[in-house]
Design a protein that fits this description.
Elements: H1 2-11, E1 39-40, E2 45-49, E3 61-64, E4 69-71, E5 74-79, E6 87-90, E7 97-104, E8 111-119, E9 124-130, E10 136-142, E11 154-157, E12 166-172, E13 176-181, E14 184-190, E15 205-213, H2 222-228, E16 239-250, E17 256-259, E18 269-272, H3 277-283, H4 287-294, H5 297-305, H6 308-325, H7 330-353
Antiparallel strand pairs: 1-17, 2-16, 3-6, 4-5, 5-16, 6-15, 7-12, 7-16, 8-9, 8-15, 9-10, 10-11, 12-13, 13-14, 17-18
The structure holds 2-acetamido-2-deoxy-beta-D-glucopyranose (9 copies).
């Protein structure tokens, strides 16, 4: 989560009470560099209902700053101590679209829960929740990395943001951007109202969902700490944000999005035809996750409970059923069995390293 921290650190200079965090760099900024690689498109829609059997696919989401815990109430992003900032960052980009997060923010003075869309040329759309304020959500935006104005952040009253699940939705088109909570439109930004479109977010965006300690004096300026609501008291940990569901719909379809020139205007974006790799991956369940979901509920429960014996019985039962039902040629069956074995190893490995397993989340994700 260096990204979030860096962005926040930048902020403060402006005023004593800065109200922003803005992305200040990207790996390749197409406004200054004509050789940036195309953005992989999303080009579809998907509803992630995160639970312990639906965890973020690492081919679709990058994880930084720690891994969320997947539980039966959703993906939990927790700060247990200094330096924690679990974040999911999409590998895909959307070019206008809808994002709904069904979630509750983390409590804790100085703790920032954050849902951010950002593009390679530093357009940005934000939701932020400051853990010291249980009744407020911040909305914000930036165009082309322009941070010279600090009046774009607007706070709205929302009841019990840390205790109640709300639906926070962004509806983003080339004409207007809306921040919506539980079907109520809080804020509408028209293209023309953002410096005649110049500051309007309008380039392909990736999605970042995370939590960070804006009130940690070791990694933030005084201005950021003040904005975040004060200094974090790590004796009060854990601070947990819960993401029950994440719905994303890309309003464009295609396989990649490329900046056609250095204007940063939406009209300059070239869309390559075809299905995106993410769309293909989502439309076809794969690997261990698919096998896991195909198992009977009792077998899933056994695996989740980490019962090796029951797991083994489930495995044998499943292989038996599959061999029986698979009347394909021997070669094909062997190949499938090898794949199955590999998947089950991955699954076992995943469970061993999962937050609920013996290693308490020390390991990698496999789905
Ligand atoms: C442009 O991007 C390429 C690829 O990321 C990088 O190697 C190169 O240094 C960049 N050039 C400039 C001027 O930023
Ligand atoms: C999410 O999935 C879980 C487990 O399948 C289910 O119990 C729950 O109702 C789902 N939640 C929503 C909001 O669809
Ligand atoms: C995600 O991780 C992969 C592999 O570590 C890396 O190649 C890719 O650039 C990352 N994507 C983003 C958007 O950071
Ligand atoms: C919470 O934020 C709202 C602005 O949305 C502000 O009016 C209120 O005073 C804040 N409450 C606390 C306890 O800081
Ligand atoms: C940045 O935005 C401010 C208004 O928010 C505007 O006055 C200024 O001209 C913009 N700067 C650039 C380089 O577009
Ligand atoms: C947050 O506010 C709600 C009422 O809106 C209240 O019931 C709840 O106890 C508050 N939680 C905290 C941590 O202050
Ligand atoms: C969230 O709110 C949006 C906008 O009102 C709505 O389209 C969507 O159906 C809602 N999602 C859920 C799960 O309620
Ligand atoms: C930041 O705040 C601390 C504690 O109030 C103070 O000692 C320090 O001088 C401040 N630093 C700056 C750069 O204002
Ligand atoms: C894209 O996916 C759809 C549905 O999955 C399929 O019908 C179509 O042939 C695919 N198009 C390409 C270019 O692969």
């Amino acid at each position: 989560m260096a990204g979030f921290m860096k962005t926040a650190a930048f902020v403060l200079a402006a005023t004593a009470v800065s109200k922003v965090s803005a992305q200040t760099f990207s790996d390749c900024n197409p406004l200054f560099n004509t050789t940036c690689t195309p953005n992989p498109a999303f080009g579809t829609w998907h509803d992630w209902n995160f639970t312990d059997s639906v965890i973020a696919d690492t081919k679709i989401w990058n994880t930084t700053g720690g891994t969320p815990d997947y539980t039966d109430v959703g993906a939990q992003f927790t700060i247990n101590g200094k330096g924690d900032s679990p974040t999911l960052e999409s590998n895909f980009y959307m070019f206008f679209g809808q994002v709904s997060v069904i979630m509750k923010a983390a409590p804790g003075v100085g703790i920032v829960s954050s849902v951010v869309l950002e593009s390679d040329d530093l357009d940005e759309i934000d939701w932020e929740w400051l853990g010291g304020n249980n009744t407020s959500v911040e909305t914000n935006y930036f165009g082309k990395g322009n941070t010279t104005s600090y009046d774009r952040a607007i706070y709205y009253d929302v009841d019990d943001v840390t205790g109640t699940i709300h639906n926070y939705t962004l509806d983003w088109t080339k004409e207007q951007l809306q921040w919506i909570v539980d079907d109520k439109v809080l804020r509408t930004l028209k293209y023309a109202d953002a410096l005649n479109g110049e500051n309007y977010p309008q380039t392909p965006m990736k999605l970042k969902i995370g939590i960070w300690a804006g009130g940690d004096p070791d990694s933030n300026s005084n201005g950021t700490i003040e904005w975040a609501g004060g200094i974090v008291d790590y004796h009060q940990t854990p601070f947990t944000m819960t993401m029950e569901r994440v719905y994303v719909a890309d309003y464009s379809t295609g396989s990649t999005y490329t900046y056609g020139d250095q204007t940063g205007s939406w009209e300059s974006i070239k869309i390559a035809a075809g299905n995106s790799t993410v769309a293909q991956r989502l439309s076809k369940p794969h690997g261990a996750e698919a096998h896991y979901k195909a198992l009977p509920k009792w077998a899933q429960a056994a695996i989740a409970a980490g019962s090796v014996a029951v797991f083994a019985i489930a495995l044998v039962a499943f292989i038996f059923c599959c061999i029986k039902s698979r009347r394909a040629g021997r070669r094909e069956r062997d190949a499938a069995d090898a794949q199955w074995e590999k998947d089950m190893q991955e699954l076992a490995e995943y469970k061993r390293n999962s937050p609920h397993g013996p290693n308490g989340g020390a390991g990698k994700e496999y789905f």
